[in-house]
């Protein structure tokens, strides 16, 4: 099958770039894939974080051949992308939806395609990472409906997004799958005492890790507020490793107000891929106190390092983390519940048993179910709009 894929890749930052890179690599094991990527991504005035490119060292895993064409504010690049697709005549156009920022490009591109008779049989498949982005509003909902109805089928990452897409497009063909493992990183852990020594921690410290971009919806404030209660029972320290996408002063002021300066260790920069092992190796447990989510690339990183998780019951988190087996699930925006779960985790020495369960479970994880699902959705045919019930993302 001939496939055209549009999306970001290295040297752009973040989970979507890693996801697209791996998706293309695994699709190319079975199919002929034309990968169209970006010359530029978000303009600085719209991007809340650092607009610099990924500082990670180059590697064969990160790099895939692609056509770097698209620019967000240059319609000529959109037209050039259309011309590539028209010339290529793929059987499948695979688009990704995670932010309404790309709506103008997607609108024009899909409109041109649907008006081109030679592309009438091409299947348009959307992979939806977030139907409505975290902190999104009415405009995001409007744009999602305006663009996504042009797709022939959809893959979502959580039961929550399945329900939202059904609400937006009642007759859409939708199926769900789990987020595959992000195997672009060195997953060989360092000895825990060595990792902790590099971070100025004692070998016998009890360590939680909050990792990734820091935004309001990720709930870091509630985790910090839980620490005084946790520290009454356990000598836990918290590593916060990731780039702030908002003002970091309120977080640092909160730490100071609570007297946690020696307890919370900030590494507030973008963590390059070659340093990820250090932070995960030093941690006993990974904390994800999110207020909103679908699936999480951080959860997949934790699984790859066989690290237990304490997370909130939002989006697809309970589908990824088995409560009392590979981690603990608590309500969102609840510092007391986070504190109780953390105390319970350390008092009952759950790290070893949870890690063993993760190791056993992840042996069945791969990209094959997603690639199989892409093939299945494409084979159904453009006009077959049969209702399709979602299965558990963990078993598709």
* Helix segment tally: 14
CATH architectural designation of the largest domain: 3-Layer(aba) Sandwich
* General form: elongated
Number of domains: 2
**Unreliable residue stretches:** 382-396
Please give the share of residues in helix.
Answer: 25-40%
By helix and strand content, what is the structural category? alpha/beta
CATH homologous group name of the largest domain: Glycogen Phosphorylase B
* Global Rg: 21 Å
Overall CATH class of the largest domain: Alpha Beta
Q: Give the total of beta strands.
A: 13
CATH topology of the largest domain: Rossmann fold
Average pLDDT number? 88
Helices and strands in order:
Elements: E1 2-6, H1 15-27, E2 32-38, E3 67-70, H2 75-88, E4 92-97, H3 103-114, E5 123-128, H4 138-148, E6 153-156, H5 159-168, E7 174-176, H6 192-198, E8 206-211, H7 220-231, E9 236-241, H8 249-257, E10 264-267, H9 276-282, E11 285-288, H10 297-304, E12 309-312, H11 317-320, E13 327-330, H12 335-347, H13 351-362, H14 368-379
């Amino acid at each position: 099958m001939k496939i055209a894929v549009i999306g970001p890749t290295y040297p752009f930052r973040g989970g979507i770039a890693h996801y697209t890179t791996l998706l293309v690599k695994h699709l190319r094991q079975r199919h002929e894939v034309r990968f169209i990527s970006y010359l530029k991504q978000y303009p600085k005035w719209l991007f809340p974080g650092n607009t610099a490119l990924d500082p990670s060292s180059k590697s064969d895993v990160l790099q895939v051949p692609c056509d770097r064409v698209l620019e967000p504010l240059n319609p000529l690049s959109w037209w050039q992308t259309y011309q590539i697709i028209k010339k290529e005549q793929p059987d499948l156009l695979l688009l990704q939806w995670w932010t309404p920022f790309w709506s103008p490009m997607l609108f024009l591109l899909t409109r041109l395609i649907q008006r081109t008779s030679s592309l009438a049989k091409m299947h348009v498949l959307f992979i939806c990472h977030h139907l409505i982005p975290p902190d999104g509003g009415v405009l995001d909902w409007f744009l999602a409906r305006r663009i996504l109805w042009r797709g022939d089928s959809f893959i979502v990452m959580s039961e929550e997004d399945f329900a939202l897409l059904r609400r937006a497009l009642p007759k859409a063909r939708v199926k769900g799958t789990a987020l595959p493992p992000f195997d672009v990183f060195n997953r060989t852990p360092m000895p825990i005492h060595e990792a902790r020594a590099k971070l100025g921690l004692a070998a016998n410290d009890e360590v939680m890790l909050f990792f990734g971009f820091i935004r309001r919806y990720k709930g870091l404030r509630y985790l910090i507020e839980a620490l005084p209660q946790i520290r009454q029972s356990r000598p836990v320290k918290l590593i916060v490793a990731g780039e702030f996408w908002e003002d970091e002063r309120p977080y640092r002021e909160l730490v100071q107000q609570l007297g946690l300066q020696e307890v919370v260790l900030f590494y507030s920069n973008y963590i390059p891929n070659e340093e990820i092992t250090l932070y995960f190796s030093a941690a006993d447990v990974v904390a994800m106190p999110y207020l909103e989510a679908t699936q999480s690339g951080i959860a997949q990183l934790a699984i790859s390092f066989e690290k237990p998780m304490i997370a909130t019951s939002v989006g697809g988190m309970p589908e990824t983390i088995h409560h009392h087996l590979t981690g603990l699930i608590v309500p969102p925006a609840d510092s007391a519940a986070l504190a109780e779960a953390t105390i319970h985790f350390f008092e009952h020495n759950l790290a070893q048993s949870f890690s063993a369960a993760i190791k056993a479970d992840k042996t069945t994880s791969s990209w094959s179910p997603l690639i199989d699902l892409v093939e299945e959705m494409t084979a159904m045919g453009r006009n077959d709009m049969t209702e399709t019930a979602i299965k558990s993302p963990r078993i598709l």
